[in-house]
Design goal:
Layout lengths: L2 E5 L4 H12 L3 E6 L7 H12 L8 E5 L5 H13 L6 E4 L6 H6 L1 H21 L4 E7 L21 H19 L5 E7 L1 E3 L18 H9 L6 E4 L11 E2 L1 E3 H16 L5 E6 L5 E2 H12 L5 E4 L8 E2 L4 H7 L7 H14 L6
Length: 350
């Protein structure tokens, strides 16, 4: 049984990936500072296992701590070894992800995201654990008025995006220094939405959601009065922004596919877009949400936001070819599962 260390494993993407790994027979060690997430997520992950007649009790362990703490991380590896297992690989989610906050407080983002990652990679190197799947982002590309391919120049427009580029560059330097041993995959996400079909885990934004989908869900349930659509004069088919939405469960599956690929192939450093390759306008998303959930979202047009761009859509030919991975869920599934989570958990994990 392979043992995988998942940093930030209690977050939105991390928790769904942990479930996917556990259901696939991996042992999972979760590291999370718990500053944003909740301990109750561990119990919910185990509950999902029970619903599928799977006992995750001895297959998932949680370590609360900060990846910037080298002693803490070293102890995680040591404890795993004392329990008779070596950590085979790391999936690295831990970090801050608010674009708006990164603009206000860039030093915080460079410290947590970049210093934390460097510390993690240093400990991995010391422990001879040299396989990592890194949670990157489509924000690394910046603004291109075309489908985004992995070979484009990286030109992010905010500190959050710059920290992701910096971490990718650190990983490239590490790979170049030891090409016979490191296996690295940078997964550049587009717009993950939805939730686990059970409704037990999902996206749990603090305060006002910065992403459109949890905001739509909260408007649907009357938690918020209306959705503001920022701009109706973009150069798109209906004047609203185009985004590439992917179901969180497909994104989780992509991490497992990347992990399996790295472990079964020669050492390499690869960059992969994880999206659907399909563009959806904001108005199309609202219409699909209304149709799928038999509701009517109250919305109002507002001025464009600084930093927005007309289109962000993935070209996924590379990931499809290399990993043999393709998304399975359509937009209707994303809308139904996302609202189900919000209905069952109007206050998140509280």
């Amino acid at each position: 049984m392979k043992t995988i260390l998942v940093t930030g494993g209690l977050g939105f993407i991390g928790s769904h990936t942990c479930v996917n790994l556990l259901e696939s027979g991996f042992r999972v060690l979760i590291v999370d500072s718990n500053k944003i997430a909740s301990n109750s997520i561990i119990q919910r992950i185990k509950q999902i296992g029970k619903l599928n007649n799977l006992d995750f009790t001895k297959k998932v362990l949680f370590f609360e701590g900060d990846i910037r703490d080298e002693t803490f991380l070293t102890n995680v590896f040591d404890k795993a070894r004392k329990n008779g297992t070596n950590i085979d690989a790391v999936i690295h989610f831990a970090g801050l992800k608010s674009v708006k906050e990164s603009v206000r407080n860039p030093l915080k983002y460079w410290d947590v995201n970049v210093n934390g990652s460097i510390n993690l990679f240093r400990v991995m190197n010391q422990q001879n654990c040299k396989t990592v799947v890194f949670s990157s982002s489509a924000t690394v590309y910046g603004y291109y008025n075309k489908d985004l391919t992995e070979d484009l120049d990286l030109n992010p427009s905010n500190p959050y995006g710059f920290t992701k580029v910096a971490i990718e560059k650190v990983l490239k330097n590490i790979f170049d220094s030891d090409k016979d041993n490191w296996r690295i995959a940078n997964l550049r996400y587009f717009n993950p939405i939805g939730a686990h079909p059970t409704g037990l885990i999902g996206e749990n934004p603090k305060n006002i959601p910065e992403n459109i989908f949890p905001y739509i869900c909260q408007v649907a349930l009357g938690i918020r009065n209306k959705l503001f659509v920022f701009g109706n004069d973009w150069p798109t088919k209906d004047g609203t922004c185009v985004r590439d939405y992917i179901h969180i469960m497909d994104l989780a599956e992509a991490h497992k596919s990347a992990l399996n690929f790295l472990q079964n192939n020669d050492p390499q450093n690869i960059d992969l877009n994880i999206g659907t390759g399909k563009g959806t306008t904001v108005l199309e998303l609202i219409a699909e949400f209304n149709f799928a959930n038999k509701c009517s979202i109250n919305f109002e047009f507002a001025n464009r936001r600084n930093g927005d761009v007309a289109q962000i859509k993935a070209d996924i030919k590379k990931v499809s070819s290399i990993l043999k991975w393709n998304p399975k869920n359509n937009l209707k599934n994303m809308c139904i599962d996302g609202l189900k989570w919000q209905k069952l958990n109007p206050n998140g994990f509280e």
